[in-house]
Specification:
By secondary structure, this protein is α/β, with parallel strands linked by helices. Strands 3-2-1-4-5-7-6 form a 7-stranded mixed beta sheet, with helices on both faces. The structure holds S-adenosylmethionine (SAM).
Length: 216
């Protein structure tokens, strides 16, 4: 278990702790993390609202070895992130640009993909597809503002299309706290016919709701 006692300030505590503990088991050192949507200062909602994952990823990479790519379309967001994460700057590569375009520049496999940019399920799906050539069976996919539970706690479900795309390819939701999900490749490639049908049904229902509510 990772000792987080000297970690920087961050939110999404349950999910971020779990995902990094999973990551350490899968690849103890020299990790490659990609995060879409960066940690901002006064442009954003702080550790509670935004999550502040970038400093935590930087801290983790400094401790365990590795690199985090953080991508944001807003130049000011990246500039604020540089300030917040300056202690870990050697471990972080900062990109200003569209997430799907930048992700394609990666040429090694990604150990942790954190999708946390626009509140738009199609953008999240494009990010996932852009990363696909670098995703292995051991890659951990972590998505913010998403839950596949029948009764969602609140907010929008930006990862709903990614969920279904991965589920159909044999990935399972291994964590869902009503706000974020983690998906990992199942040990079995076999997909139960009814489970597939149910995933399609649930995805359509949630995606329609997201479109109807005008959240995107
Ligand atoms: C919720 S914030 C990210 C929070 C951050 N991951 C954290 O843990 O603190 C979402 C960010 O995504 C950025 N964004 C939106 N669409 C984007 C896109 N297509 N490509 C890259 N960044 C995008 C926004 O500018 C915004 O700064």
């Amino acid at each position: 278990m990772i000792d987080f006692s000297d970690a920087p300030l961050y939110g999404r505590i349950e999910g971020l702790k779990l995902v990094l503990n999973k990551l350490e088991k899968v690849r103890p050192t020299n990790v490659f993390i990609i995060e879409t949507g960066t940690t901002r200062g006064d442009l954003g909602g702080g550790p509670e609202g935004d999550g502040w994952a970038t400093p935590l990823f930087g801290w983790y990479c400094k401790k365990n070895g590795g690199t985090t790519w953080t991508i944001d379309i807003e130049e000011e967001a990246i500039s604020q992130c540089r300030e917040i994460t300056k202690e870990y700057a050697d471990q972080i590569t900062y990109f200003v640009g569209d997430s799907s375009e930048i992700i394609q520049k990666a040429n090694v496999h990604v150990d942790l993909l954190y999708l946390d940019s626009a509140n738009d399920p199609l953008i999240a799906l494009n990010e996932l597809k852009a990363a696909e050539k670098n995703i292995t069976d051991k890659t951990i996919i972590y998505i913010d503002d998403t839950s596949m539970k029948t009764k969602r706690v609140g907010g929008i479900c930006k990862g709903v299309l990614v969920f279904n795309y991965l589920f159909q390819k044999g990935w399972d939701v291994t964590f869902d706290n009503g706000h974020q999900i983690i998906m990992e490749k199942s040990t079995s490639d076999h997909r139960n016919f009814f489970a597939t049908l149910f995933a399609n049904f649930k995805t359509n229902r949630i995606y329609k709701r997201v479109l109807r509510k005008g959240a995107i």
